[in-house]
Design goal:
The complex is a heterodimer of chains A (436) and B (438). Chain A is an alpha/beta fold. Chain A has a single domain, classed as 3-Layer(aba) Sandwich (Peroxisomal Thiolase, Chain A, domain 1). Chain A is 31% helix and 19% strand. Chain A is built from 14 helices and 16 strands. In chain A, the strands form four sheets. In chain A, strands 7-6-8-9-1-10-16-15-11-12 form a ten-stranded mixed beta sheet, with helices on both faces. Chain A has a two-stranded antiparallel ribbon with strand order 2-3. The longest helix of chain A has 17 residues. With 438 residues, chain B is of the alpha/beta class. Chain B folds into three domains: 231 residues, Peroxisomal Thiolase, Chain A, domain 1; 33 residues, no CATH class; 154 residues, Thiolase/Chalcone synthase (Peroxisomal Thiolase, Chain A, domain 1, 3-Layer(aba) Sandwich). Helices cover 34% and strands 19% of the residues of chain B. Classes of the chains: A alpha/beta (436), B alpha/beta (438). The interface between A and B is large, with 106 and 105 residues.
């Protein structure tokens, strides 16, 4: 008998809110968090909008040996505090080996803050300032950076491997994993956490993702990939998943976490159960780095495998929270894949894209959207896909256009598909109240 | 519904690219006691500590590998180059010269898990961006201040792939295309322990019946510019001005820090049924995998004591049903960091006890290869199982006291049936893999 995995804690730091109830409330109200970028003046870059976390977080300067100065560490700590409080899980002492042995952390992380500008003083010291790019002297820079370790230390932010150990210490975990599969990362972390519990390696796993990509280099960099929309005005109208006017995704930042727990363990400690992970599915396109396989093969395989894992037919799914990035290719391929998996257009349940309102949280996207699914199950309500004004014949499903809807959701599917062809689907359901 | 299967899982092939050449050249250098550490020159000039064991791997080298013609070097960082180099050699060794010809049913059951450090850009371009963003008037006052209106001027010369290739999953994304793997694929990130973590988690995925066959391992571009500068900032690099050939000193009291080395190393894991159907003879059986997180004293170590390392090994030995005296061979981490090596030395003495396990440490040959370091140690163990040659601990003539008489600087011969590979990251994640010759 496979060990059952339930969700006993949820926490988030997203552009909308640092509270899962307020996040869901605003999504159901159709409120977009996309704004003109405020962390720097974006006037000179093509994509000038994003979904930023604009509120203050009460985060200490340090936790244990870790400096919490970077945005990624601040988000991770804040989301960790909220999630552990939600789960009612106390941290374990370092010498509680038996307790720690049953706890783990699986975190998805992206590229770092890419705050190369912090290297400015060393760069300038080595190169001087010239009007054009010129031929910088790399050797001189290396020597200057090596002589000023405090400048080179900002490179730490590229190495985003501090966040999972931080959570490991906060939880009291004996196993810590940092992993990435691009835009599928957050769901992938959930999948890995589920499998860890099923294998009996852990009873409690703190899992999720963090991403802080809104920087002076990443914004124009992803615009060069033609991945971001450059329709900047109005910001709230720019993310248009499945709409004929879609032109790319919106970058977003945040961190979301879940506490996953073996059912018996959760019941034994009287934890509140928010839902159950019924099935997980993973598949790889093995096709191209940037484009999904046009027939949606890998996407479809992930959905089918998740349903198979849950031992459920497609007809059991009441709602799909789509990957729905607002790019031409993804949304068309995902639509095609959903129609193939569910047996035609009429058989696909209502689909909505949270990214229409909070943009693309990249490594935190899947887990944030899993939280949205759990709230839909709990509240019997699904949020809309906003900015649906211009139908696309290639995207002809019920995307819950513009207005939230009451719906009895017993089973929800969450899709996440990443650059590089990594695809993950989760099937989430209400806990049925049984202990077996 | 997921089922958990407990069939044996085997290693059937391995491959590597290192600063001393491929896995065979690396092995030959190690047995001869030769170090491939050399002065960093050419494009690596000026990098601290001034020496290392870089891999010279180019687009031309990709062409002869499986899937090589379909790979796009412009979308690769050094992490990815090393990964696809190792995976390509491993596929060839496994008899998978053309994975793209495999049937869908086979590709669907093949996965790729790789460990690496955070992907890192070509720094010169990004420094040029930083440079171009600087306000000249502020610079004239000796300050650095960003002028946001100059961002796009700094972006000239960048293409979209310059940022795409920074996605941390790119080594695995490329390797999954190369191996025609449509099952699970994941990239494990962090310090040296993640290469072994990728292998352990691939085994888990096979146990969960998510795949029958995996390519798993790690890539470690230790001589990467950003990584060298970061390690320097952390105070973890070996001293400058040392003789390169003797600078990398694993488990040795006179070691002064990390000597950077590049490598990629991977293995093929598969079920017995899968190997048998392909007519492949297993090299070794996976006997145990364990991992342990210990809260370090600082973000980059040190560990609080040797207890975590001993507990890690005991977990693995218990899972395998062995005791320390059953071990014939231990592939140590031997990073060359005094605060880690002395703990490892104490732990090794306790793990081995009265047994006679050969303690192998390859850092003296090709430096510390980050996430590829432990997979490379695994390759060495598999080679020792096959040829009965026990490699020397190069440059370790003054071992920590607990290892005096246990660490040999000369090669030997012996029967290696059971091996333990240790991968210790000072940042707190410890992993161990136990294998048994078939």
């Amino acid at each position: 008998m496979t060990r059952r995995v339930v969700v006993t804690g949820m926490g988030t730091v997203t552009p909308h809110a640092d509270d899962v109830d307020r996040l869901f409330e605003q999504l159901c109200a159709g409120v977009s968090a996309v704004r003109r970028i405020r962390s720097f003046d974006p006037s000179s870059v093509p994509s000038q909008i994003a979904a930023e976390v604009l509120y203050d977080l009460d985060v200490p300067e340090r936790f244990g040996p870790w400096d919490l100065g970077s945005r990624a560490m601040q988000f991770t700590h804040a989301a960790g505090v909220r999630t552990l409080a939600s789960a009612g899980l106390p941290s374990l002492a370092e010498d509680d080996h038996a307790g720690r042995a049953r706890r783990a952390v699986h975190l998805a992380v992206g590229v770092g803050s890419t705050a190369m500008e912090a290297l400015g003083p060393a760069t300038i010291a080595a190169w001087g300032v010239v009007e054009d790019r010129g031929g910088g002297d790399a050797v001189a820079f290396r020597r200057a950076a090596a002589d000023t370790p405090e400048d080179a230390a900002v490179l730490e932010e590229w190495f985003v491997d501090q966040a999972a150990p931080l959570l490991g210490a906060m939880l009291g975990a004996s196993s810590v994993t940092t992993a990435a599969s691009a835009c599928a990362s957050g769901s992938h972390a959930v999948l890995d956490a589920v499998n860890r519990i099923r294998l009996g390696q852990s009873d409690v796993v703190l899992t999720g993702g963090v991403c802080t990509p809104i920087t002076r280099s990443m914004m124009p960099g992803f615009a060069l990939l033609s991945a971001l929309t450059i329709n900047n005005d109005p910001p709230e109208g720019a993310s248009r998943p499945f709409d004929g006017g879609r032109s790319g995704f919106i970058m977003a930042e945040g961190c979301s976490l879940l506490v996953l727990e073996e059912l018996g363990h959760a019941l034994a400690r009287g934890a509140t159960i928010h839902g159950e992970v019924l099935g997980v599915g993973i598949a790889t396109d093995s096709y191209r780095l940037t484009d999904p396989e046009p027939g949606g093969r890998g996407m479809g395989d992930a959905m089918r495998r998740a349903l198979g894992d849950a031992s459920l037919p497609p007809s059991a799914v009441d709602y799909i929270n789509a990957h729905g990035t607002s790019t031409k290719m993804n949304d068309a391929a995902e639509t095609l894949a959903m129609k193939r998996v569910f047996g035609g257009r009429e058989s696909v349940p209502p689909v909505s894209s949270s990214k229409s309102m909070f943009g693309h949280l990249i490594h935190a996207a899947g887990v944030t959207e899993a939280i949205v699914c759990l709230k839909s199950i709990a509240q019997g309500r699904i949020h809309p896909t906003i900015n649906q004004t211009d139908p696309d014949p290639d995207c002809d499903l019920d995307y819950v256009p513009n207005v939230a809807r009451d719906l009895d959701v017993k089973v929800a599917m969450n899709n996440s598909f990443g650059f590089g062809g990594q695809n993950v689907s989760l099937v989430l359901g209400a806990w049925d109240g049984s202990a077996a | 519904m997921t089922s958990i299967r407990n069939d044996d899982v085997f290693i059937t092939a391995f491959g590597a690219v290192t600063g001393a050449g491929d896995e065979e050249a690396w092995r030959a250098a190690w047995l001869e006691g030769e170090s491939a550490v050399r002065p960093l020159e050419g494009s690596n000039e000026g990098l601290p500590p001034g020496y290392g064991a870089p891999v010279a791997f180019t687009q031309k080298d990709l062409r002869g590998l499986p899937g090589g013609r379909g790979l796009r070097p412009g979308t690769m960082t050094e992490h990815t180059f090393l990964a696809v180099g190792a995976v390509g050699r491993t596929l060839v060794a496994a008899g998978l010269e053309d994975p793209s010809a495999d049937a869908d049913a086979v590709a669907d059951r093949r996965g790729v898990y790789l460990g690496t450090y955070t992907n890192f850009p070509e720094m010169k371009k990004h420094l040029a961006l930083v440079h171009a963003m600087g306000d000249p008037e502020a610079a004239a006052r000796g300050e650095y201040r960003i002028d946001d209106s100059r961002i796009m001027a700094g972006m000239r010369g960048f293409g979209g792939f310059d940022f795409l290739k920074l996605m941390n999953n790119m080594p695995t994304a490329h390797a999954s295309i190369q191996a025609n793997a449509r099952g699970p694929a994941n990239t494990f990130l962090g310090h040296s322990s993640v290469g072994l973590q990728a292998i352990g988690r691939a085994w888990d995925a096979i146990r969960l019946d998510l795949a029958d066959q995996f390519v798993a391992g790690g890539s470690g571009p230790g001589t990467l510019e950003g990584l060298c500068l970061l390690r320097r900032a952390q105070g973890r690099l070996a001293d400058e001005g040392l003789d390169p050939a003797t600078a990398a000193r694993p488990l040795d009291r006179s070691a002064t820090g990390l000597v950077p080395g590049d490598a990629g190393a991977s293995v093929v894991l598969e079920t017995g049924a899968c190997a048998s159907a392909r007519g492949r003879a297993p090299l070794a059986r996976l006997a145990a995998y364990s991992e342990l997180f210990v809260v370090p004293r600082g973000p980059h170590g040190p560990l609080p004591g040797p207890g975590g390392i001993v507990a890690l090994a005991q977990q693995a030995l218990s899972q395998a049903g062995w005791s320390g005296s059953d071990l014939d061979y231990i592939a140590a981490t031997g990073a060359g960091l005094a605060d880690l090596d002395r703990l490892e030395a104490a732990a090794l003495a306790e793990i081995v006890g009265t047994g006679g396990a050969w303690i192998a440490a390859h850092t003296g040959v090709t430096g510390f290869c980050e996430a590829a370091h432990a997979p490379l140690g695994l390759v060495g163990a598999l080679q020792a199982m096959a040829d009965g040659k026990l490699p020397p601990a190069v440059n370790s003539g003054e071992p920590w006291p607990e290892l005096v008489g246990r660490l040999s600087t000369t090669a030997d011969t012996g029967d290696v049936r059971r091996a333990l590979i240790l991968s210790l990251a000072p940042e707190g994640t410890l992993t161990a893999l136990a294998i048994e010759r078939v």
